[in-house]
Design brief:
Elements lengths: L1 H10 L3 H13 L3 H12 L7 H17 L3 H14 L4 H24 L4 H28 L3 H14 L2 H5 L1 H8 L13
Helix pairs in contact: 2-3, 3-4, 4-5, 5-6, 6-7, 7-8, 7-10
Amino acid sequence: LILLSTIASGQTKPVDDLYLDFTLFRSAQATEKAIEVGEQILDHPDKLSTRKQVNLYYHLAKQYEVDHQNDKAVVLYEKVVAAVPDYYVPHMALGYLYLKPANQLVSKINASKNNKVEYEKYVGQYQALLVKSIRHLEKAQACDPDEQLLTDIKDLYSRLRDKSGLATLDSRLKEYSKNCITVLTDNEL
């Protein structure tokens, strides 16, 4: 039994070593392996420093996004935003990730026009996703202005028929532009 427990414990890497492996796999663009190792770390994130936890969440979310596991990416990007709200990059990712299911709802909305209950349900879901998307895209626009992104934000306000939100956009962008973080490293938190 002692020999078996020694062998078994020798196969379990410390979380810091797994974190290094994760970093190496993602740097080598080995998405599948990076996800595999990252998920092992997610079983014990408290064994990492807060900085490394946030970095893991961000980079694993990116790996999920590359692997088209958008629901998992959203969960982790939301953790990053909660921990570092001024880091605009996950806001950009979330903004566009929330648009994907919103755009998929359009066909359901159109197909349910004769069923008022379903129609209103889908329209409500659609609008909620657009609002979430805008909130994140505005932070990204404030920190890294881009003409196409600004056009996308204005289009979303048009889809929502939210003239007051559009009218106050510039003041929100000015407020959101304060304290922007452009790069996340293990040492920034």
